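Incident log, entry 3
Record: DUF393 domain-containing protein (270 residues)
Problem: checksum mismatch between cached and fresh output.
Input:
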Amino acid sequence: MKTLQNHLILYDADCPMCKAYTKAFTHTGMLDDGGRASYQDMPEAACPLVDRQRAVNEIALVDTQTGEVSYGVESLFKVIGNSFPLLKPLFGFAPFVWLMKKVYAFISYNRRVIIPAAHDLNGIQPSFRLGYRLIYLAFTWLVVGGILTVYAHHLSPLVPIGHPLREYFICGGQVLFQGIVISIYAPAKRWEYLGNMMTISLAGALLLLPVLLLAKFIALMPLICTLCFMAVAGLMFLEHIRRTKLMHLGWLLTVSWVVYRLLLLAVILN
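Fresh output:
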């Protein structure tokens, strides 16, 4: 595998995804052993060459000899294309590049609500883009609603099967209900909280996929599926507490989160 020499990639030290794939670049020899550094600890030699805020939003790759800097998917394409030359025509295909830029931006501008930072290093934060946050909320709503709609059939007759769009209504209602609460309680953190909340819902829905897969091969009793659902709900509750603490929010959001679910349960069972 050909190494891209004399290049330094700058990643977000608070982003596990960023740390993982840049570490893979150096471990596999795609970059030199010293070819990665966090932008929080940006080397002094690179500082004059890098647009600092853009490097926070889009991972930067610095040519340490020429001073040339690339950002985002162009940085990734440069590293990967150097090691896998057969991919270079794809990386030069305009529609593919456009699509990957949108996917990259979708992940990058939402990465702190996908995996929240346990601490804030040097006060550097990615820019907030409301459009990408709204797209993220819509995406998670559709995925969670779809998975729960399928899972609901495995809970019957313990939990009655309702309207075909019931789970979508429930998930969307959660966003509206909690959105009202956070808007009254801490409006400045509205979009941060809603992004984290929907990430928790998405993670919970994904945890149910193994049960759905197992149900394809063996008949699972509704009680087993219900217990699995309750276990996932318990994990979601704990994660909600953890994330609200990271956002420095009090117990009100967790209480309202639980109240909403209890009200729904009462409505569904009656």
